[in-house]
């Protein structure tokens, strides 16, 4: 650390000496041009400014020439790409002139006094006056200098790169001469304050990405970066965070930093090009790697293509980040493409074992339950550490609930029409299902938890695609527990439930249905949620054999959903009331098909008891077995009726202590039949004919 600070201080001192020497040369040229009577006198402001330049050079002992700068000085690097030595010296002179006002306000005053518009910066006109003076009376040299300055500032690759920038309107020689982004910070060996870019250091290592780093294509990219090979390394696919982690890991092997700019989803081509060149300019000045990343939310998937000039003046490798759908820029550079995909399960297990060694034995289960990326893991560690520090007990240990809560807090969630995010509270004991259905649900949970063992350790994924994840079909009448089962399953897996009404995603407009479905799957992948598609027959009805264009397009929508289901690595459940309404060709796509039948009499009685808490005051005339035998209600209807009966009992006035009577249940049941549009079967045989629910309520 001390050595780094000393090198930075030495760089700044070299820069200051070079600038002081430039200031002295400028003062001598101006003294000769204006004469001692006007410029050198002590009573004029210009004379005082010139005297400051001479005194500053003398105080700095600025006797060193530019050639005496160390080879690794930023100024030497900035001029290294110019092959002609004369042009390199000229470019250094211009760059130092533009930097003078940044060094000291005395130089800014001198520039202001000599500026046609009174601005405190150098101008091209000032540079020409200074350099022409040093040519003496040689008219040919003067003309050659003017042509060389114009070539450097207007026509060469350096002009496109923007290390030196011309600002203002009018002819080139009347404009301001300014430093490009990051150049002054580079000359001062300081981190830049870039208004639209960010300087990011590399990562020496990232848990879980060792196997990715060892891939042959990645090793090719590393060699290109080390050797400074001019090329474009494209990180293609994945999210912006996934690309960022891998890019920083690449650069951390050198080690080297990156100047990243996120190209916005909107804005003109000129604005995007300006952003890209700013990043390249700053990266060149700072010995970093430019990194241009396409915003993943961009509706303009050609954003990278038109953001860069084809003849980009870049002497080394640059990084490009793009989505799978992006069209790549037509650069005059070789392309090296690195496809970015989610971590494989074995790498996730390694990552969890490295992050939480105290839960190392459960790393496989963590990898199956929480398929997060390394960028999320870094934030998660800080969240978990804070939880432990603020726990009520000092010996509090981490568990899966802590991890789930922290990940839920960090998950990105954007509400969409037709999508509900449910924090699962249901448990398996809340469900009363036939033994076969309960067994299938239990097997499904175990399948998710054991994916890593079977698919990776035992090699069952070799040669096959889309074996990860789980696709299930729930079918049965309304109210039989399909959503409740999905919620209990999500709770047992430690994830949220995304309940999606498929009928609300179907659109009559071309391409809108696929767009809506893609957004839902993207949301589920970011939030690691269990997906429940309700009203599955809205898209999974029997396919048309051809018909009109509407039928053919509906088939395309169905095919799109099937494709995304197969690619989804989480749990996806499709729910429908009628299995017969689905095309049988779809059935082979599901690992589990679970039937939720209407409850029989014994199950209905159990449901009544399940939905009546132990604290609920039941009257002695209550006969739950009779209600279960006489009224064929679904589980959801029984739950609603039990709650409604309790409210009826609580609202009853009288001297007696409120209690839930049989008549309260009968009134609530009659309402459930009305809501379902069915005829009320009447009162149970044991109930007196005159003791109708409505009669009781009137009394």
TrEMBL record:
CDD domains: RecA-like_protease. The keyword Nucleotide-binding applies. Residues 468-600 form the AAA+ ATPase domain. Gene3D superfamilies: 1.10.8.60, P-loop containing nucleotide triphosphate hydrolases. Residues 676-699 are annotated as: Disordered. It holds the Pfam family AAA. InterPro entries: 26S_Proteasome_ATPase, AAA+_ATPase, ATPase_AAA_core, P-loop_NTPase. It comes from Solimonas aquatica. Belongs to the AAA ATPase family. This is ATPase family associated with various cellular activities (AAA). Keywords: ATP-binding, Nucleotide-binding. GO terms for molecular function: ATP binding; ATP hydrolysis activity.
